[in-house]
Amino acid sequence: MADKEPVVERHVAEEEGEDSSAAAAAGEEDTGAQVAPIVRLEEVAVTTGEEDEDSLVDMKAKLYRFDKDGNQWKERGTGTVKLLKHKENGKVRLVMRQAKTLKICANHLVISTTKMQEHAGSDKSCVWHAADFADGELKDEMFAIRFGSVENCKKFKDLVDEIAESLAKIEGESEEGSSAAGLLEKLSVSESKPEERAAKEESADASKETETKTEATPAE
Q: What residues contact 102, with CB distance under 8 A and at least 6 apart?
């Protein structure tokens, strides 16, 4: 009896192994059935608001804003700063989004009075004032931005200064043109005054002559 027990155990083990192999084979068998999704998701076009603009520069940086109440610099976000030029009107705006959330942390136009200044104590940073619209309303902000290298900081600063100077030149030429037009208008008005005066004098003389003739005519 003692010699037969191991044989029984061996048969049981073999049967269990065959069952497990059959179950595994059944699980791996491809039935060809396709399960349709419960909810069908449609592609949605995502717009950034930058579709009508060309990127002049695109750099990674860290942005700070000056808190007037606390009298200190506060980090605004780390991400990508861009200078975008509109394809139609040519206006350039500065836009910066946070890296992970893509939240806008700076959004304002570069105008003729925009002036980038080097940040004291750091040749990788620069400071400027702007009327910013990142929070959905215009706010007078003071920003500081820090780049990863001196070269990137200089490239960014020089490009902003170049755009601002170009706008100032255009505005200056426009003002000169307006002044010249105003001067010509004044000259034309002053030149017409003697002619108007002469016409008025002739009209007055004719009126007097008519009155004189009327008085000289005898009544019937």
A: 79
Place of tokens 């049981």: 12
Q: What is the pLDDT of residues 72-102, one digit of tens each?
A: 999 999 999 999 999 999 999 999 999 999 9
Task: Enumerate helices (H) and strands (E) in the chain, giving the number of each.
Answer: 2, 7
Q: How far from 194 is each of 183, 202, 205, CA to CA, in Å?
A: 18, 12, 16
Q: Are 155 and 57 in contact (CB under 8 A)?
A: yes
pTM exceeds 0.85 for this model? no
- Contact in structure between 53 and 85 (CB atoms under 8 Å): yes
Name the burial class of residue 95, with classes exposed (0-12), middle (13-18) and buried (19+) by CB atoms within 10 angstroms of its CB.
buried
Helix (H, G, I), strand (E, B) or coil at 74: strand
DSSP code of 89?
T
Is residue 6 within 8 Å of residue 13, measured between CB atoms? Answer: no
